[in-house]
Write a sequence for this structure.
């Protein structure tokens, strides 16, 4: 992802090849699920007939140990330029490579109001609660902090791949090749280049993802490895803190993979990291060295082993393109018997998978009909013809499971405008409620993430974080946050957001997609502690996004917002 080297590593040239999947019988899955290239059999009630998938296995030996404070005091290895990688689509090509560059025209229409139902997601189970969902929303009322995090100048990479996890005392941010920890009001506490953090590895690193476990007081992150050659063994890094102090000791694992999903030279692209009480849940899109999509490999790592520095092994299930593990909500994290996984599928809706909490094979529970189109053009910027990549309708950040509902957000097309869709799936009835979010009728909105906190009195608090431009009004790429309060259902969030930072335009074009790169993801992490006296736990979250400075270089923006 370096600005200085845009080429893809040898053996990983992006070929514009259609993926030849296993043929399915006439009574097989709908086309959306067939894209998984073979899935586990669904529950009988779903009535689905699926051929056996590609599978894989993985393992990691006993952990190596590193102490971030000691690492910071030691001589630093020379910084390595991160690999030049673009998230790939199901066709193996860079995502967004085929999107046209069109001028902003007119205003998008207002979406239809959410249906007035009495017992849907976040309704508090009453008709009155559902009616509250029709009221105009407001963003979280208090911005406790909003400060700059990592920057292109100290990473030497494009884009940021920004995300952050918040614990009781710290905010840990991982970007493309940097690990940094801040106080909750800002102030750098420790930092390291990821190559140095991971024992001075020569691996080309990309797409870090992080989380905080409020049940065990641990931080974790994973980072992808760009294969050095077509014969390189597939691998991925996983790091777990030894305590609630991310500036202290860590267990480090280099996970190796094998099997049909993971041939030599395979790229494990766009990884996700989620959790339930007993496992860290991971997935990534697997491509062979010719650029062909093999399936999304999903697997679980037992916390009992990872948190104690022990080795582990696992089996990987092949699921649909960009299937994300669903994080379990709650402070402390809710006890669940089932963990869900979700994929957004343009033209169809959602593939919902389930597994027993703590591991085991994934099964396709349902293909949920809620058709949408992926964005049909990139985001425009005022004052330049350079556009910003908005990806392809995939889930940018893991969804969240709360009391039987799976909450999600991703990009869609609405009347020619890149737009945010949010929604909640009832995992008991396999039904979905959806809504839209955008800054204004003329804005382009992209790269959303959502965080959910359970409300003891019923319903949820939600934070929705995304980026937008508003070219007709002269607004360059900006970071914004909106929210949902208990009893509001799943409402449209239109002009209800609060902009955290307004940026400048950029002209840094990635020639492979003909557009500027923007983050590839954003994040929301619910704060396990109170922001202030009188503000209960579960009312505050930390968001992470990016903007462009006056030089057109990216800078991350960390916000801490409360419903108090």
């Amino acid at each position: 992802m370096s600005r200085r080297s845009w080429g893809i590593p040898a053996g990983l040239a992006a070929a514009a090849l259609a993926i030849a999947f296993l043929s399915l019988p006439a009574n097989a899955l709908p086309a959306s699920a067939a894209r998984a290239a073979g899935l586990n059999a669904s529950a009988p009630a779903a009535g689905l007939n699926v051929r056996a998938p590609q599978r894989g296995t993985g393992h990691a030996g006993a952990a190596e140990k590193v102490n971030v404070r000691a690492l910071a005091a030691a001589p630093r290895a020379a910084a390595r330029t991160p690999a030049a990688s673009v998230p790939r689509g199901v066709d193996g090509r860079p995502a967004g490579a085929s999107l046209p560059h069109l001028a902003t025209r007119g205003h998008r229409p207002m979406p239809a109001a959410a249906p007035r139902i009495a017992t849907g997601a976040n309704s508090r189970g009453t008709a009155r609660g559902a009616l509250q969902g029709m009221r105009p929303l407001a963003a979280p009322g208090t911005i406790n902090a909003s400060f700059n995090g990592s920057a292109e100048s100290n990473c030497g990479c494009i884009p940021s791949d920004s995300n952050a996890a918040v614990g009781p005392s710290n905010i840990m941010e991982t970007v493309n090749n940097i690990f940094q920890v801040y106080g909750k009001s800002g102030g750098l506490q420790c930092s390291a280049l990821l190559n140095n953090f991971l024992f001075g590895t020569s691996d080309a690193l990309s797409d870090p993802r992080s989380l905080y476990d409020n049940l065990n007081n641990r931080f974790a992150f994973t980072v992808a490895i760009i294969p050095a050659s077509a014969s390189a063994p597939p691998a991925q890094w996983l790091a777990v803190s030894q305590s609630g102090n991310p500036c202290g000791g860590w267990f480090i694992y280099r996970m190796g993979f094998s099997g049909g999903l993971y041939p030599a030279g395979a790229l494990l692209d766009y990884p996700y990291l989620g959790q339930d009480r007993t496992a860290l849940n991971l997935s990534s899109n697997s491509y062979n060295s010719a650029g062909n999509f093999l399936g999304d490999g999903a697997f679980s790592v037992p916390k009992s082993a990872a948190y104690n520095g022990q080795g582990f092994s696992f089996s990987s299930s092949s699921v649909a393109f960009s299937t994300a593990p669903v994080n379990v909500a709650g402070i402390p994290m809710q006890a669940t018997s089932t963990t869900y996984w979700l994929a957004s599928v343009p033209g169809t809706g959602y593939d919902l998978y389930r597994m027993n909490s703590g591991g085991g094979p994934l099964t396709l529970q349902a293909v949920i009909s809620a058709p949408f189109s992926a964005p049909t053009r990139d985001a425009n910027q005022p004052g330049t013809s350079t556009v910003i990549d908005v990806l392809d309708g995939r889930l940018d950040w893991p969804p969240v499971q709360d009391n039987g509902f799976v909450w999600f957000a991703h990009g869609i097309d609405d009347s020619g405008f890149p737009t945010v869709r949010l929604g909640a799936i009832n995992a008991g009835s396999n039904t979905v409620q959806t809504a839209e979010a955008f800054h204004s009728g003329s804005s382009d909105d992209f790269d959303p993430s959502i965080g959910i906190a359970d409300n003891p009195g019923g319903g949820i608090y939600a934070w929705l974080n995304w980026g937008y431009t508003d070219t007709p009004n002269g607004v360059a790429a900006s970071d914004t946050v909106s929210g949902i309060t208990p009893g509001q259902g799943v409402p449209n969030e239109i002009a209800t957001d609060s902009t955290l930072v307004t940026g400048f335009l950029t002209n840094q074009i990635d020639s492979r997609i003909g557009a500027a790169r923007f983050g590839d993801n954003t994040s929301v992490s619910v704060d396990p502690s109170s922001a202030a006296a009188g503000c209960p736990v579960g009312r505050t979250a930390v968001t992470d996004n990016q903007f462009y400075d006056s030089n057109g270089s990216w800078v991350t923006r960390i916000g801490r917002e409360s419903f108090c």
Summary: Helices lie at 31-34, 68-73, 127-132, 194-197, 303-306.
